[in-house]
């Protein structure tokens, strides 16, 4: 199942179920108005959303065209993430930095959205906390984090087949159309990342955790365009693309 949040006049947008090929979507406000609302009652809501997803693929569910440019972050704001809580940039929004910003760096990786996770959970049990998977981009200026962005679409782990958490699907990071080759490829198990995040306190449903999988780091400059995506084994985009241009605020 693939889920996205479309921008509207509210802070948290509206939840939609997206087709596997990322071309169509179906509004599901009658089931859950927002992704956070779905996560808060996942055991009840997820099966209903899955039925919509089946209908989207079979043609029995009404759909409309899905445009990645209309999407906010799947969770426009979150209670907790390894980059901090708060609001996130949309996947196609410009990266607006202060004038004179330098030492701009990007860290891209696979992230997960969790359900409620107990404090000090064992790594063996932490994998059960993964509800959705998405891509993450963190922009830092100097030693401080400036902007966090997530892919247009978040997917349930079954969309990635067995072994998705072993880093066998390549994370594609491009700067001005050229691959960013940092020589860094994270192989951390998502369960370990969740257990580490929950070492001191429980995680609330909707927490976003960077896993380190596919971790890629590179430098950016004002005017650069960054694109991050991941394809399945047939070459089709799984999460849609994060594509952003680095700009100075007010210009």
UniProtKB/TrEMBL annotation:
Gene3D superfamilies in the record: Fumarylacetoacetase-like, C-terminal domain
Species of provenance: Rhizobium herbae
Domain Fumarylacetoacetase N-terminal: 1-77
Highest rank taxon of the organism: Bacteria
Keywords per UniProt: Hydrolase
Cited PANTHER family: BLL6422 PROTEIN, FUMARYLACETOACETATE HYDROLASE
SUPFAM superfamilies for this protein: FAH
Annotated InterPro entries: FAA_hydro_N (IPR041072), Fumarylacetoacetase_C_sf (IPR036663)
Molecular function per GO: hydrolase activity
Protein name: Fumarylacetoacetate hydrolase family protein
